[in-house]
Amino acid sequence: MHDEATLALVGRLHAAVDHMTAQTRAALQAPLACQRGCSGCCQDGLTVFEVEAERIRREAPIWRSGQRPGPEGACAFLDAEGACRIYAVRPYVCRTQGLPLRWFEEDGEEVVEGRDICPLNAPAVDLIALAEGACWTIGPVEERLASLQQAWGGGLRRVALRALFEAE
Ligand code: SF4
Ligand code: SF4
């Protein structure tokens, strides 16, 4: 199956997410602590859909220089200075880090909205009072990624980021 057009759509989705997160950030108008070297959110054990993993396998330049995984306890792609070594092709989940997140969940017979933000960014925002447009809504992009993964093949198979080094 593994249609190249599907893989190209993953790149386009990542670009669209970057555009949308920039809009969210502009609406937020708050000084977030996120910056190069701040890496508390780059946890070990993150998994991504196979189709996103394939983009990293093909396009991350680090493979050409034979780089090795970072030590366990943090994401294998983090470098010694706390920067991402695959920043341009990092997966979706990494592109929304730091933003206020909102989602919907069932609570009995009700559907309620949940919100959260990195504790380092919490002092800069009034999470509850934020307008919807100043938050990243979890759901739509996840659904789009899942449909791309289905089109790619292999069901909804996920791959640990660290496992990408084992295949090299
Ligand atoms: S891929 Fe990059 S941004 Fe994502 S968790 Fe790993 S180091 Fe952090
Ligand atoms: S989300 Fe939190 S830990 Fe991650 S870069 Fe932003 S401030 Fe740092």
List keywords for this structure.
binds iron/sulfur cluster; alpha+beta; globular; 168 residues
Structure description:
By secondary structure, the protein is of the alpha+beta class. The protein has one domain (4-166). Helix content is 33%, strand content 13%. It has helices at residues 4-28, 50-59, 92-95, 140-152, 163-166, and strands at residues 47-49, 101-107, 110-116, 136-137, 158-160. The strands form two sheets. A three-stranded mixed beta sheet has the order 3-2-4, with no helix packed on it. A two-stranded antiparallel sheet has the order 1-5. Strand 2 and strand 3 (110-116) form a beta hairpin. Helix 1 (4-28) packs across helix 2 (50-59) and helix 1 (4-28) packs antiparallel against helix 4 (140-152). The two termini are 22 Å apart. The model has no long low-confidence stretch (mean pLDDT 95). One iron/sulfur cluster (SF4) binds at residues 42, 46, 75, 77-78, 84, 86, 90, 94, 161.
Average residue-wise pLDDT: 95
* Number of E-type strands: 5
Distance between the termini: 22 Å
- Ligand set: iron/sulfur cluster
What's the overall geometry? globular
List the total number of helices.
5
| Class inferred from helices and paired strands | alpha+beta
Task: Please specify the SSE layout and strand pairing.
Elements: H1 4-28, E1 47-49, H2 50-59, H3 92-95, E2 101-107, E3 110-116, E4 136-137, H4 140-152, E5 158-160, H5 163-166
Parallel strand pairs: 2-4
Antiparallel strand pairs: 1-5, 2-3
Helix pairs in contact: 1-2, 1-4
The structure holds iron/sulfur cluster (SF4) (2 copies).
One iron/sulfur cluster binds next to loops.
